[in-house]
């Protein structure tokens, strides 16, 4: 309520200076809906599962992969032992699928399928590594490494490492070879899942994928791949709802977080991103497809030396919408494109043809966004002439460049701002489809966000 009162007072001040295309009621209605975006921490039964730790179940059945013949020497193939242990753990109530500490397990592409008996914990304390040679991969599983599917009420936890051994894969990445799009850890078609404390590193391509899931909580996860590794998205969310990602550190060669089609009620809190391509919604609408993403909140993040900051990217020719998105309390350090909406996204070796249809983008708020950029255009709203972006809200934005002035670029984008907005985004209110405005002076600085709980070290 207090935040909304502050917003209301800000709008009164804005009204005193004149509002271009939005009435006072319009603005209040937009802000009220954006303020309502929030997924409570205790939402859904996923939290009931999270409150039961492995230690509390120590009197129950422990299914240790070593007991099924795993050698744990990092050389012998332990795939068969993992499959046998999984079959036992999955069929036994109150069981713990245990990968013990201090050992390295070489596991080939494997699918771990449910449904399973009640109250299964997947306890990973050791290191699981993938084959380093692409030629050794199972041709029957060309797109996955560790795939968990059809689970309900399951906890993934531990201090262990999932290592994709991806260096030789990066040379044949799908950026160069479209038949090759490997995912390291995948949780698919599952409900009420908790993932806590794991490290996922050196993925072949996408590090961690949440696909077709409902009610997922991810916390205290470390994702690490080199900044020049291609297509190694940190956490990729697709066709999923009610996902909470918090207190996690992600450094990759692609998007730290990517949210794509048929995803809604996504909340991200206290996220560190860098290196990488930022936090992205999209890409969406490729090959004239329909895409829908809604109700996404990022609250408190630090982005360091990323190529993008807060990005929404869509292809020409698509349809559907992105709406009801709020970015709050984000600090950036030397980010190339801090705020960007790109409806002309074209990740293709050939030029993309112009098309009139587009994924509609509306009701997007950027609030308390501060820091430095390495580019002149600190904010870019490059929207479709036929399907313009609308209801973009800027509040207390302060982006600066160490060695020059900064600008805002707009094409077919409409919205409003209040409080500090630097660089000026008056072009959101302009009748011109294409304009660039610079703001050379600013009298006050937005306070820095509280970030003591985020470690600012390089991955």
From TrEMBL:
GO MF annotation, one: polygalacturonase activity
Organism of derivation: Trapa natans
Catalytic site: 277
Keyword Membrane: no
Recorded family membership: Belongs to the glycosyl hydrolase 28 family.
GO terms classed as biological process: carbohydrate metabolic process; cell wall organization
Reaction catalysed by this enzyme: (1,4-alpha-D-galacturonosyl)n+m + H2O = (1,4-alpha-D-galacturonosyl)n + (1,4-alpha-D-galacturonosyl)m
Subcellular locations according to the entry: Secreted, Cell wall
UniProt protein name: endo-polygalacturonase
Coiled coil feature spans: none
EC number(s) per entry: 3.2.1.15
InterPro entries on file: Glyco_hydro_28, Pectin_lyas_fold, Pectin_lyase_fold/virulence
Keyword Metal-binding: no
UniProt superkingdom: Eukaryota
Keywords: Cell wall, Cell wall biogenesis/degradation, Glycosidase, Hydrolase, Repeat, Secreted, Signal
Main location per the UniProt record: secreted
SUPFAM superfamilies per the UniProt record, alphabetical: Pectin lyase-like (SSF51126)
Signal peptide: 1-20
């Amino acid at each position: 309520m207090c935040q909304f009162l502050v917003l209301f007072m800000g709008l009164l001040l804005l009204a005193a200076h004149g509002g271009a295309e939005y009435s006072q009621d319009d603005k209040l209605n937009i802000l009220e809906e954006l303020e309502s975006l929030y997924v409570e921490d205790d939402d859904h039964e996923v939290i009931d599962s999270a409150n039961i730790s492995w230690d509390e179940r120590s009197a129950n059945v422990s299914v240790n992969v070593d007991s099924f013949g795993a050698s744990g020497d990092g050389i012998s193939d332990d795939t068969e032992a993992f499959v046998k242990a999984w079959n036992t753990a999955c069929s036994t109530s109150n069981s713990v699928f245990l990968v013990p500490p201090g050992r390295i397990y070489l596991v080939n592409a494997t699918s771990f399928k449910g449904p399973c008996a009640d109250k299964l914990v997947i306890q990973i304390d050791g290191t699981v590594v993938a084959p380093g040679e692409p030629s050794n991969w199972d041709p029957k599983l060309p797109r996955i490494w560790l795939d968990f599917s059809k689970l309900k009420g399951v906890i993934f936890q531990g201090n262990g490492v999932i290592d994709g051994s991806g260096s030789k894969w990066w040379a044949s990445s799908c950026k160069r070879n479209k038949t090759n799009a490997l995912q390291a850890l995948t949780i698919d078609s599952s409900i009420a899942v908790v993932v806590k404390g794991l490290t996922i590193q050196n993925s072949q391509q996408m590090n961690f994928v949440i696909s077709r899931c409902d009610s997922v909580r991810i916390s205290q996860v470390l994702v690490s791949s080199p900044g020049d590794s291609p297509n190694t998205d940190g956490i990729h969310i697709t066709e999923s709802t009610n996902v909470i990602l918090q207190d996690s550190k992600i450094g990759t060669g692609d998007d730290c977080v990517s949210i794509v089609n048929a995803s809604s009620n996504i909340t991200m809190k206290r996220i560190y991103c860098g290196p990488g391509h930022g936090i992205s919604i999209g890409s969406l609408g490729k090959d004239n497809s329909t895409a829908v993403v809604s109700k996404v909140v990022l609250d408190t993040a630090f982005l360091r030396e990323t190529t993008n900051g807060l990005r929404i990217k869509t292809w020409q020719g698509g349809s559907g919408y992105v709406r009801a998105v709020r970015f709050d309390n984000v600090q950036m350090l030397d980010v190339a494109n801090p705020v960007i909406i790109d409806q002309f996204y074209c990740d293709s070796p050939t030029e993309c043809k112009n098309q009139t249809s587009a994924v509609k983008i509306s009701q997007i708020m950027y609030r308390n966004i501060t820091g430095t950029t390495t580019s002149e255009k600190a904010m870019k709203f490059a929207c479709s002439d036929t399907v313009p972006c609308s209801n973009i809200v800027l509040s207390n934005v302060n982006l600066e460049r160490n060695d020059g002035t900064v600008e805002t670029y707009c094409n077919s984008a409409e919205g409003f701002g209040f409080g500090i907005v630097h660089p000026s985004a008056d072009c959101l209110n302009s009748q011109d489809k294409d304009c660039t405005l610079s703001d050379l002076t600013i009298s006050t600085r937005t306070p820095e966000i509280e970030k003591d709980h985020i470690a600012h070290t390089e991955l």
